[in-house]
Amino acid sequence: MKTKKIIADTMPQALKMVRQQLGDNAIIVNTRAINTGGIFGFFTKQKYEVTAYTMDKEEVVQEPPKKKIEPIEKQIDPIEEKLREEIIKPDEVEKQNSVFHKNPQKLYQLYSQPESVKENKEQQIQTEQRESVKEANAPQPPRTETVKLVQAPQKLESGAVENELLTEMKQMRKMMMTLLMGEKQGNNLPSGLLTHLSQLRKQGVTEEVIEYIVNSFIVNNLLKQNESVNDMSEDVIKKEILNIIEEILRKRICDSTNINETTRMINLIGPTGVGKTTSIAKLATEQILKQKRRVALITTDVYRIAAVEQLKMYAGILNVPIEVVHSANELDTVLRKLEHFDLIYMDTTGRNYKEVQYRESINGFINHSVNSENYLVLSLTTKYEDLELLLNEFTESPIKKLILTKFDETSSYGSILNIAYKYPYQLAYITNGQSVPEDITRIDPTLLARLLLGEEK
């Protein structure tokens, strides 16, 4: 039997040295953080010590045949997806460390091979975590240096195996965050990453989104088996951040130019002054000229004469009919009148939709028998906190898509990323000017990611 004590600057480095010197069959006996150097206890540097041993071939006890499992390559994708989805909470970090100090072999497995996982059973996981914390806080007996050889595993039921793997996966995820971010140990993130995070904050990106970006950045590089994020170049860091931002956006961007053939009505809802009427003119023009559809317009915004006149002007230019509806009761009659048209755009009254009565009043216009799509129109010049109030109110409504206006009137784009990360709405269009019909487009995730990191338009 060969025993080694490895000391390195980081835990990943120490575990890598264990693999190099003792091989993949090495068994971890103990791991701990130690302070080295310094004067009278000051200016010390934290390092990590790993004690491990390996047995000669004749010492290894053969395990009984195991149930056949899938090749490890097929298990990597779901594991990686699970790692990306789950975010560590800072106050859970130290609780999880005790799990690995009690069973350091699990920590070694973290860097040697992945494990397959199944669906989460939260209650069992929480119970095991509480037990881990309780045991960690209990008085510990004196440590002995006796090391047992590998024993044949006991036969476990299928469900128990899955639960054990799932629990271990949770612990691995949290330990990865602790080891690589190292906030509680005093380690620093690379300066290039900190620079980009500062820029994202200037753009109005919330701390919730920034935390996700940091965690994704670290997990991505751990899965690539990079030794340390601190060794990455500025260009590599920027590319990684851009990819993470683009991934968030792509999950929410939809192609609304190809409207379903069964859709007969498009309803635009939103506060006063966000650009609903101009947006309708742009969308209608696109459908008439590019998709060759027969289009009609409806407006319910009878409270603002200017809005009605503006839409009538666009209807005259496009040579399409327009109907003015004063109440929800009139809508069915108007829809029957326009039933031979391919697509109808309805401009609704701009109201303060933070008020319950106004939100309820709009339901009479958008809840009808005609197959329709509903768009919430919001201005990017509005503070994100105010956007949140509206988005929260409409989450349970039939409104599923967003049009974000006045992109050209702001230099702060963090709200778009915040919305894409937090809310289930699809990002359909942005408008970037008053010209009809050209100043409306889909969001370009690559362009927006670069703008968020400070590049010019």
From TrEMBL:
* Main localization (coarse): membrane
* GO molecular function annotations of the record: GTP binding; GTPase activity; signal recognition particle binding
What processes in GO biological process is this protein linked to?
Answer: bacterial-type flagellum organization; protein transport; SRP-dependent cotranslational protein targeting to membrane
Compartment(s) = Cell membrane
Where are the stretches annotated Disordered? 114-147
Q: Which GO terms describe its cellular component?
A: plasma membrane
Q: Membrane topology type, per the record?
A: Peripheral membrane protein
What positions does the domain SRP54-type proteins GTP-binding occupy?
Answer: 263-454
Q: Which UniProt keywords apply?
A: Bacterial flagellum biogenesis, Bacterial flagellum protein export, Cell membrane, Cell projection, Cilium, Flagellum, GTP-binding, Membrane, Nucleotide-binding, Protein transport, Transport
Q: What CDD domains is this protein classified in?
A: FlhF
What is a single Pfam family found in this protein's UniProt entry? SRP54
What ranges does the record list as Basic and acidic residues composition bias? 116-134
Could you tell me what this protein does? Answer: Necessary for flagellar biosynthesis. May be involved in translocation of the flagellum.
Which family does the UniProt entry place this protein in? Answer: Belongs to the GTP-binding SRP family.
- The name of this protein is Flagellar biosynthesis protein FlhF
- Recorded source organism is Neobacillus niacini
